[in-house]
Amino acid sequence: MKNTQPIGFIDSGVGGLTVIKEALKQLPNENMIYLGDTARCPYGPRPAKQVIDYTWEMTRFLLTKDIKMLVIACNTATAVALDEIRQQLSIPVVGVILPGTRAAVKASKNQRIGIIGTVGTINSGSYEKAIYSRVRQADIYSLACPKFVPLVESNQAQSPIAKKVVAETLKPLQNKKIDTLVLGCTHYPLLRPIIQNVMGKDVELIDSGAETISEVSMLLDYFQLANLEATNPGTLACYTTGSTKMFNEIANDWLPTQTVQSIQIQLGE
Amino acid sequence: MKNTQPIGFIDSGVGGLTVIKEALKQLPNENMIYLGDTARCPYGPRPAKQVIDYTWEMTRFLLTKDIKMLVIACNTATAVALDEIRQQLSIPVVGVILPGTRAAVKASKNQRIGIIGTVGTINSGSYEKAIYSRVRQADIYSLACPKFVPLVESNQAQSPIAKKVVAETLKPLQNKKIDTLVLGCTHYPLLRPIIQNVMGKDVELIDSGAETISEVSMLLDYFQLANLEATNPGTLACYTTGSTKMFNEIANDWLPTQTVQSIQIQLGE
């Protein structure tokens, strides 16, 4: 294993770019490869078995690119596929749910915590289980937000329609006195200003991206895989199963310094 | 491996209790075993080969107690023995130098970083190497402080003599315009108020304990070893090769809630 080998990131679409953004900041030396399965996005409403199959297809593609570590930058895929993939791969595999959980438990003072995510993530109960095992007396309010991912994937995250959809969707959480809300889907940070506005400024929003990359950084050290000898900044290569035009628009709008030119690939044939 | 098995902590003496203090806060469910080799403290002036041998003796003792993870809560031992012990043990092994490095790099704004430690730690160059590989243009000022550990081990950390010794020792660092000072020895947080006073309030002191325990917490999750099913707070058992009376005095003064009754053992016979 060479330390110059890239770290692989997979997501159902563009959501994992919120994790990439944090990686560019915390791990500027690392080479990275991103794959978004935009053509089959969203994963949220799909049966667990299918999400596991799709996640394996993405994983196998990145393994052909000689990745040294895999980040499942998708909550839905983490919820159902992380354990299995970690067991079968010889490289370290990181998910986004436990980092988000640790950050939420740390942030909450009143132990009233909200979780929003896809139908798949919420139904898996992964966050509830992880939070309860750490804070037995927590009050947890979970809410599936199936309309959010399509908004982001169609590059409408800043549109008036997004404001309306977010406000309507989050209504059930507004009288719950939560002080912390987990953005339990990597797409949701792209809606962050609107979500913050709806929930009010006293609710702390947890974007598991930053915490996930702290875990990646620690594991790179632990397994002696960090690309410390680099003299140039790392590279970022992006692949999508969908429209490269839409992907590039969202990526270049969201990421600070990169000029993303994604490459289209096909999975599952 | 059972998740109820204890985490083992080793140090040349009482210094690693500063890491235990953080563990009691961040990991209240975990069972812990601490071993301080007080009879042979300080390790700092000893040859590397001897420190490695002593560290193995401590490690072997804790392995008989069925630990699920080992924390080398001693910078001198981490500097010379971590790689070897990690390679040979099947349980995760964590040191204190990389966590301290990550925290220092994060904290420093002017990239002028001081490091204080034992003669062994400073001579190993471990911190310099780890910091330079992350921040190539850093200005690093290292200083061995051989008088600090004996002050702490003799329970004189709050005495007037400690103030005098610390002020004299740290003089070479005072005109270096550092904004961050790594307490590169787990004993030094016991001298923290005096060190802070000498260096001035604008210098951020890095105690690697907190960052080390964040790494432990992440690795417990990663390797699925966390004691999450516990319904009672974890236990802490302490062993020392030296005087239990002195050990208990320092431990009970330093730790917030525990009543430490250490047990004396012999190593190296």
TrEMBL record, chains A, B:
Pathway where it operates: Cell wall biogenesis; peptidoglycan biosynthesis
Binding positions (substrate): D11, S12, Y43, G44, N75, T76, T186, H187
PROSITE patterns tied to this protein: ASP_GLU_RACEMASE_1, ASP_GLU_RACEMASE_2
Active site: C74, C185
Top-tier EC class: isomerase
Tagged with keyword Isomerase: yes
Keyword vocabulary terms for this entry: Cell shape, Cell wall biogenesis/degradation, Isomerase, Peptidoglycan synthesis
NCBIfam families: glut_race (TIGR00067), PRK00865.1-3 (NF002035)
Function: Provides the (R)-glutamate required for cell wall biosynthesis.
Protein name: Glutamate racemase
